[in-house]
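pls design
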C-alpha cells in the first residue's frame, strides 16, 4: 500500500510509520515541521518514506499528493492535556482537528485516483465523563467541551463518504506505551511518590500502543470495516487499579494520591481529562474480529514497564 499520514511524528503516528515501513508499505508523511520529521524518520532507516510540508487547515499544493495513495490516516491535532484551557487554547484544540480534517477530506474528494479509505482519529471524550455509566459505540455524545470537539471533528470526517470513500473513525482511549500519558505517570513512582490521581474512582479506558497500531492497520486493509469503533481495551479499570498495578510491577509504593487541586492548578479545565473518566467498551471492535495482543492491564503494563 501507499499510505498518507498526518500527525506522523507523534506518539502513535511514529509507531504506525515504523510498522508500515517494516511491512514494506510506502508512506507519505504530511508535516508542519519537516525538520523534525527528517530527524524522526532518517532516510537511511525509512527508504520507503516521503516527507511533505503542509499547513493543516489550509488548502494547498500538498493536497494533490494524496492522489495515488491507497489510504489516509488522519491523526493530527493539538495536544489536549498539556496546557491550561484558555479560550485561545480551546479554539486551537478544536480548529486543529476540525479544519485539519476538513482539508484532508477536501483533498481526497478532488484527487484522481482517490484513496479507498480514510482512517480518522477521534476520542472517547465524545461520550462525556461518568463514574457510573458504561459507553459503547452506540452511546450518545456528552455535552462538555471535549464531547463538542469530537462531534465537530467526526462531522468533518463523515463528509468523505460523499466522495464514495470508506470511512473508519477510531475513538481513541488513553494509549499506553513508552511515552504519552504513561510516561508522565511513571516519574512519581520512580521517586517512591506514586499513587492514584484525584479520587481514584474515575474510570481509565486504555489501549496498548501495539493494539492501536494493529487496529489502524486492520481499518486500512479490511474493506468490511466502516463507521465508528472504540479504540480501547475490553477491560477498562479504575484509577486506583491502574496505580496499584503500576506499583506492583515497578516494585514501588502506590498509595500517595495526587490531589485534584494540584492538577487543576497546572491544567485548569484541562485536568478533566485525567480527573474524570469514562468506562468505554469496544463492542464493535470486538465484533469486527480484532484480536487484542494486550486485553488485560497487568500484561500491557508489564510489557511497557519492564
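designed seq:
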Amino acid at each position: 500500500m501507499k499510505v498518507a499520514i498526518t500527525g506522523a511524528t507523534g506518539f502513535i503516528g511514529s509507531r504506525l510509520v515504523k510498522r508500515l515501513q517494516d511491512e514494506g508499505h510506502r508512506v507519505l508523511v504530511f508535516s508542519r515541521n519537516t525538520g523534525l520529521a527528517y530527524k524522526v524518520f532518517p532516510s537511511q532507516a525509512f527508504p520507503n518514506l516521503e516527507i511533505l510540508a503542509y499547513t493543516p487547515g489550509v488548502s494547498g499544493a500538498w493536497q494533490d499528493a494524496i492522489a495515488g495513495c491507497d489510504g489516509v490516516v488522519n491523526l493530527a491535532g493539538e495536544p489536549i492535556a498539556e496546557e491550561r484551557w484558555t479560550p485561545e487554547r480551546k479554539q486551537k484544540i478544536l480548529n486543529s482537528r476540525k479544519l485539519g480534517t476538513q482539508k484532508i477530506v477536501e483533498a481526497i474528494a478532488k484527487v484522481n485516483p482517490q484513496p479507498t479509505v480514510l482512517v480518522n482519529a477521534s476520542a472517547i471524550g465524545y461520550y462525556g465523563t461518568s463514574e457510573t455509566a458504561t459507553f459503547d459505540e452506540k452511546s450518545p455524545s456528552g455535552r462538555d467541551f471535549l464531547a463538542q470537539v469530537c462531534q465537530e471533528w467526526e462531522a468533518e470526517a463523515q463528509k468523505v463518504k460523499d466522495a464514495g470513500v470508506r470511512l473508519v473513525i477510531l475513538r481513541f482511549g488513553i494509549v499506553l506505551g513508552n511515552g504519552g500519558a504513561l510516561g508522565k505517570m511513571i516519574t512519581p513512582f520512580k521517586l517512591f511518590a506514586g499513587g492514584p490521581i484525584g479520587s481514584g474512582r474515575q474510570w481509565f479506558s486504555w489501549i496498548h500502543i501495539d493494539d492501536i497500531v494493529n487496529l489502524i492497520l486492520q481499518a486500512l486493509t479490511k474493506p468490511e470495516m466502516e463507521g465508528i469503533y472504540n479504540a480501547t481495551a475490553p477491560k477498562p479499570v479504575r484509577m486506583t487499579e491502574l496505580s496499584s498495578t503500576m506499583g506492583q510491577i515497578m516494585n514501588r509504593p502506590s498509595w500517595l494520591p495526587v490531589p485534584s487541586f494540584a492538577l487543576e492548578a497546572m491544567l485548569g479545565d484541562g485536568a478533566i481529562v485525567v480527573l474524570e473518566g469514562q468506562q468505554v467498551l469496544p463492542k464493535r471492535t470486538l465484533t469486527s474480529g480484532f484480536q487484542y495482543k494486550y486485553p488485560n492491564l497487568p500484561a500491557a503494563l508489564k510489557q511497557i514497564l519492564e
